[in-house]
Amino acid sequence: RIRTMWPLLVGVLILSLLLSGCGGAQTPKVYRVGILSGSDAMAPIVDGFKAKMTELGYVEGKNIVYDSPKATGDKAGQLSIAQKFVQDKVDLIFAYPTVPALEGKAATQGTTIPVVFANGGVDGTGLVNSVREPGGNLTGVRSLSGEVVGKRLEFLLQLAPQVKRLYIPYDVNYPLNPV
């Protein structure tokens, strides 16, 4: 009688081990974050982002991997990288500043991949619907540069009232610069 019960006992034992979790630990998910950069001068933004992710329990190489190809200043290259992130099904795109954030938004249209931006210009760029309700899969930290430029100029003129002319280089094609 024990011989006929043997397969049943082995089956019950295996089932109980599987149900109790003793059948082996599951591999934790490794999250993939695509980093879309528009300026090497703003690289400390990535350091801050990674530091906060570490504080939240994400350990690089263990449960999170960052992919940060270079396309600094190249709008077509940034869009191509963003599209590659979507194709690779990253878990999140971190983009900074405005143009890479816009490219991340464009590339993720119709997907559920979240885009988190830093130092993004939100006024008049179409990056978000509004500050209060960004809309879609976007959120981030906006740039206050437009609001502080006037104050900086005012402060400069207080420090150096003799200044008659200023040289202010800018890119007329940049979304935050009015033409």
Layout: helices, strands, pairs:
Layout: H1 2-20, E1 31-37, H2 44-55, E2 64-67, H3 75-87, E3 92-96, H4 98-107, E4 115-120, E5 138-142, H5 145-159
Parallel strand pairs: 1-2, 1-3, 3-4, 4-5
Helix pairs in contact: 3-4
In short:
With 179 residues, this protein is of the alpha/beta class.
Keywords:
single chain, 179 residues, alpha/beta, 5-stranded parallel β-sheet
Textual characterization of the structure:
With 179 residues, the protein is an alpha/beta fold. It has helices at 2-20, 44-55, 75-87, 98-107, 145-159, and strands at 31-37, 64-67, 92-96, 115-120, 138-142. Strands 2-1-3-4-5 form a five-stranded parallel β-sheet, with helices on one face. The radius of gyration is 25 Å and the shape is elongated. The mean pLDDT is 80.
Radius of gyration of CA atoms, rounded to a whole number: 25 Å
The total beta strand count reads 5
Distinct helical segment count? 5
N-to-C series of helices and strands: HEHEHEHEEH
Low-pLDDT stretches are none
How would you classify the helix and strand content by structural class?
Answer: alpha/beta
* N→C terminal distance: 91 Å
The pLDDT mean sits at: 80
Measured as a percent range, the helix fraction is 25-40%
Beta-strand proportion: 15-25%
The gross shape turns out to be elongated
Largest sheet: 5 strands, parallel
